Amino acid sequence: MTNLIKSFKITAVLEGISYLVLFANMLLIKPFYIDLYKTLLYPIGMTHGLLFIAYVLLALLVGSKLKWSFKTLGIVLLASLLPFATFYIEKRYLNTAA
């Protein structure tokens, strides 16, 4: 497995985790602890934003390397917008690339 694909696998998992942590901050912490929510929002949001950008860029690079169809690339990019979907992408599309 190339380093590019390995990096994308790690980024996909981390992006998915950061997305869930961002939701947890909004849904579980905000209603009860407004000050803690505000304190955590910037670092969690910034981390998720950077991982999201890395996910998209790495998806484009890996897609061109593996010669993914436009449809496959679209599915991989759409997964970055749905909770838990990056975990599916990591298992479905990247384990077969190993």
Mind explaining what this structure looks like?
The chain has 98 residues and is an all-alpha fold. It has one domain. Helix content is 81%, strand content 0%. It is built from 4 helices and no strands. The protein has helices at residues 3-29, 34-65, 70-79, 85-94. The radius of gyration is 15 Å and the shape is elongated. The termini are close together.
* Integer tally of domains: 1
Shape: elongated
Largest sheet: none
Terminal Cα separation, in Å?
5 Å
SS-based class: mainly alpha
Percentage of β-strand residues: under 5%
Low-confidence stretches: none
Q: Could you report the average pLDDT, rounded to the nearest whole number?
A: 88
Radius of gyration: 15 Å
Number of strands: 0
Tell me the series of helices and strands, N- to C-terminal.
HHHH
State the helical fraction. over 70%
Contiguous helical run count: 4
Topology at a glance:
Elements (H helix, E strand, L loop, with lengths): L2 H27 L4 H32 L4 H10 L5 H10 L4
What characteristics describe this protein?
single chain, 98 residues, mainly alpha, 81% helix
Please sum up the structure shown.
The protein has four helices and no strands. The chain is an all-alpha fold. α1 packs antiparallel against α4.
